[in-house]
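Hi support team,

I submitted a single chain yesterday and got back a structure, but I'm not sure I'm reading the token output correctly. Could someone confirm the output below corresponds to the sequence I sent? I've pasted both exactly as they appear in my results page.

Thanks,
R.
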Amino acid sequence: MEVAIAIFVIFVIFVTRSIKVVPQQNAWVVERLGKFNATLKPGLNFLVPFVDKVAYKHSLKEIPLDVPSQICITRDNTQLQVDGILYFQVTDPMRASYGSSNYIMAVTQLHRPRCARSLASSNWTKPLKSATSSTPRWCKPLMRQP
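Hi R., thanks for writing in. Yes, this is the structure output for that exact sequence:
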């Protein structure tokens, strides 16, 4: 009887370690013996117990990130203090896991010089009629098409 209970407990441990349910809008990165093996998509997934390990869990939703303020100098030597919110989305979980040690910091650092370069090419001596009329012109360089 004790052997049957021990076998049942081992069976339950194997089942819980091998079956993974990934929620919608998530991707999990799996390592097999410490090396990248696969990316689990949403739904029911099976792993090899004690060999495969979920190393990283990424949300595939858009992530809003507050960008710290910076001072930009325009073409007509006007100083502007700019801050904002940056929206980004993980499209490749493997590269987000292994491409950079901190991909959120990397996205912020990529955005700051693009924002400064975009604003530096504009002329701010004339008053703006409205913020909405100028927004598309200097936001287009910030958007990168895949």
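A quick pointer for reading it: The two ends are 61 Å apart (CA to CA). Let us know if anything else looks off.

Best,
Support desk
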